[in-house]
Amino acid sequence: MTTHGGYEPVFCTVVPPHVLDKLSQAEDSTLADAARKTLERDAYERTHRRLTTVVGAPSIAPPLGAEAGKPHRTIYDARHRTDLPGKKVRTEGSEPGKDATVNRAYAGLGATFELFLKAYERDSIDANGLPLDATVHYEENYNNAFWNGEQMVFGDGDGEIFLDFTIPIDVIGHELTHGVTQYTANLTYFGQPGALNESMSDVFGSLIKQHTLGQTAAEADWLIGAGLLAPRVTGSALRSMKAPGTAYDDDVLGKDPQPATMDDFVRTGRDNGGVHINSGIPNHAFYIVATTLGGHAWERAGQIWYDVLTGGKLKKDALFVDFATLTVEAAKSRYQDGEELQAVLKAWEQVGVRTA
User: Fold this and answer.
1) Nearest alpha carbon to residue 122 among 30, 11, 204, 8
2) What is the model's pLDDT at position 5?
3) Strand ranges inside 63-199, DSSP E
4) How many CB atoms lie within 10 A of CB 265?
5) Mean pLDDT of the region 227-248
6) What pLDDT sits at residue 335?
7) Contact 141/41 with Cβ under 8 angstroms?
8) Three-state secondary-structure class, residue 25
9) 304-341, pLDDT tens digit by residue?
10) What integer best gives the mean pLDDT of the chain?
11) Is 95 exposed, middle or buried (0-12, 13-18, 19+ CB in 10 A)?
12) pLDDT of residue 58
């Protein structure tokens, strides 16, 4: 048991290992070295997370006198080192400084808090006012961002393949949603439940961006990490929920391997059983539901997904069929036999996942 009420936090990165593996084999030693260094750092942090889970992570409580329903953000600067959390540089309510990375991290934490509070009446990622901490300028040329079970960490990228990881607000939302999953369904980070874990972060990361921009489902780009890839990269983002497998096709990074349907499900032992790859299937199902219903996706489609994530019926080892079946139940429970139920049934049928 951990100090998180029995939840076992995992180490979750936004850039998948298979992308960094490919990059580490680049002929350009500068690109390859940054990727290898990132992979090594990720391996260390992943091991550290496992050890922390065993001995118990420190409990985190809202500051004394903190007001419920308000964010409690703290941004730290690692100054290109790896000691966490680093030097405190901005706290809740303080004015923006000269460092754009710090300001973006602060804003992204706030946007995530706002979406969960306004749309789902959830007070922070644990529903109990958990402080939101983030460290920026982590390591040198670090090509990733991660949630380590306690806080967010952002690299600056190498400037050649990846830019500053605070640029896409959906990357910030993606990683913090791993915290929401940690405190709710706590999906096992392997195979199909791991892909569902990743998909939840993509879904709500995208909704956070759409909520911030005031976009409808039709107006959204449905890309995860747009603006993260450097100009030299042939691609638009890390992943596409609208068209999985099309986010990038680059000489150095390779081609986006995500499937959109079960016909192309990838069986692999890498990336924890393809958690960042096969997440394209439930991602695409959510996109279909959201665009079929129209309007703001966080309202009806997002509500159904949130109901399943937090409803207590989603098991840690849930498969796609289990999750799909629960979305059908949730749609019927909240919206009876209306268009919401039909949209959910249609979506899972289109991606090849059966429902009970």
Assistant:
1) 204
2) 39
3) 73-77, 87-91, 132-138, 145-147, 152-155
4) 17
5) 98
6) 97
7) no
8) coil
9) 999 999 999 999 999 999 999 999 999 999 999 999 99
10) 93
11) exposed
12) 47
Within 13 Å of residue 98, how many CA atoms lie on the same side as its CB? 0
Q: What is the pLDDT of residues 129-171, one digit of tens each?
A: 999 999 999 999 999 999 998 899 999 999 999 999 999 999 9
> CB–CB of 348/321 below 8 Å?
no
Q: What is the pTM of this model?
A: 0.94
Residue 154 corresponds to which amino acid?
A: F
Instruction: Give the distance from CA 102 to its chain's centroid.
Output: 19
- Per-residue confidence (pLDDT) for residue 63, from 0 to 100: 64
Q: Tell me which residue of 78, 82, 123, 81 sits closest to 102, measured CA to CA.
A: 78
Category of 130 on φ-ψ map: left (φ > 0), alpha (ψ -120 to 50) or beta: beta
170 contacts: CB under 8 Å, gap ≥ 6: 202, 205, 206, 208, 209, 223, 224, 225, 226
Count of Cβ atoms closer than 10 Å to residue 198 Cβ: 32
Cα–Cα dist 176/172, whole Å: 6
Other beta carbons within 10 angstroms of residue 78's beta carbon come to 21
Q: Is the pLDDT score of 118 beyond 80?
A: yes
Q: In what order do the strands lie in the sheet with 145-147?
A: 12-13, 145-147, 152-155, 132-138, 73-77, 87-91
Mean pLDDT along residues 274-294 = 98
- Residue 289, classified by CB atoms within 10 Å of its CB into exposed (0-12), middle (13-18) or buried (19+), is buried
pLDDT one-digit tens code per residue, 42-71: 988 888 666 544 334 445 666 666 788 899
Residue 215: which H helix or E strand, with range?
A: none
Q: How would you class 157 by CB atoms within 10 Å of its CB: exposed for 0-12, middle for 13-18, buried for 19 or more?
A: buried
- Asked if 92 and 74 count as a contact pair (C-beta separation under 8 A), the reply is yes
Q: Give the residue numbers annotated as catalytic, written as ranges.
A: 175, 276
